[in-house]
Fold these 2 entries.
Entry 1:
Amino acid sequence: MAGMQEVHIPLSALTAARRSPTLTSLAGPPLDAFQRPLRDLRISVTDRCNFRCGYCMPKEHFGPGYRFLPHADLLSFEEITRLARVFVGLGVRKLRLTGGEPLLRRDLPKLVAQLAALRTPEGAPLDLTLTTNGSLLAKQAQPLADAGLQRITVSLDALDDAVFRRMNDVDFPVADVLAGIAAAQAAGLGPVKVNMVVQRGVNDHEVEAMAAHFRGSGVVLRFIEFMDVGSHNGWKLDHVLPSRELVERIQRRWPLRALEASAPGETAERWAYADGAGELGFISSVSQAFCGTCNRARLSTDGRLYTCLFGHQGLPLREHLRDPANSDSDLAARIGRHWMQRSDRYSVLRLSQTEALPKVEMHFIGG
Ligand code: SF4
């Protein structure tokens, strides 16, 4: 396949890689310490965002003086694409572009076009998607679709304009995000998914209004339990509204029926309205941890590999990438070795954690 460079990794190197850090080649997709494959790569293309959502980038910490990464520290589009190709050789089949706010990265359709050209070893295209706060989507949906983006997820935490402006903390109007969602649907980036982070006492009163708004629209609305991401969002367990409570609340208005997961390692528990008005999802990292099937890795804006959303440290890849002595096989061995030593299951252990090591911030590795 033109432009597609096969990465060959002998089996003996894989097992040896577990023991010996100096090996440069592996065979077959690596499995981690819990036999989880590497299937889903989230790529943060910028650590910047134009919102200051309290559960991710609270203004008190991410204020005017906050120092974001200088451009030279960001991976270039060519570097991201080369790394993505190496990850595909290790089993990745889904790429999600994230941030910060990815649509702030200039010329993003160029990167999308490069990633859309990648193929699996079997010659199939990858599942290429993106998560955005929707603020810039109305203008960018069509160019992203034209470049090869297949699907999109929009974060929207309330329909009430005052609640939404308070939650994004930059006084951004909800109407512009709704216009972005409509533009994404018109551009064929569907089914568009909308993610709502539900916080007790902050926006949980908006749940039924959100469900009513998106019922019958073709949009898949997902409710996310408030999580203790990073180290600055003031998370407390009693601010979490467990998904099962939400399912019961919605069932009281609209009967639901459970759906099967659509892919291995899927984070959302899927439900459908019994009357055919569409699908809902519940992402319950706190009350129903899903670490057992977690096949996700995250590439930070400056080229570090994180194997958990709640990780403390990432494996540096950028300097290896920029060292001409390192081939794609060398990079694959480095990543494969790291994945094989992975034993993350933070959400399973969350409430029994005794050590409070500082966690990576979500704006740096994507949600
Ligand atoms: S807590 Fe970490 S290991 Fe568990 S599902 Fe989330 S990212 Fe995966």
Note: The pocket of iron/sulfur cluster is lined by residues 285, 290-291, 294, 296, 308-310, 344-347 (CB under 6 Å).
Entry 2:
Amino acid sequence: MLLLKLIYYPNKLLRKKSTQINKINFKIKNIIYNMFKIMYKKNGIGLAANQIGINKRIFIIDISKKKNKKLIFINPKILNKEGEIFIKEGCLSIPGIFKILKRYSHIKISALNTNGNYFVFKTRNIKSVCIQHEIDHLNGKLFID
Ligand SMILES: [Zn+2]
């Protein structure tokens, strides 16, 4: 069993670009399971794998109040982005800091699900911002940059 913990800024792992996943095996599913556990415990709405020290291109989000709308993105790719929105952002890895950033209000991305199936996801507003924040994590970028 993996024991994974949230890592905090300025841990260098947050600055490393995450790598593509070739095979979605039990280990990857276990990482995702742990990511949700940690994200829900910390009352977050999004988490990238490198925030728990795993240098792989996975992120999860759930913006529902009931914590029952899990979204999982493996090897995400931005297909289209447009519009603008300003939202106050925070990050589980950088507690206590909030900043209003300019982001794209609409986004379309592709990714793989846990069965390895390709899908396209289109969204806007908070979810769009959340996705951009998490994809930044996978590229070693932080919202305070
Ligand atoms: Zn973050």
Note: Residues 26-41 form the longest helix (16 residues).
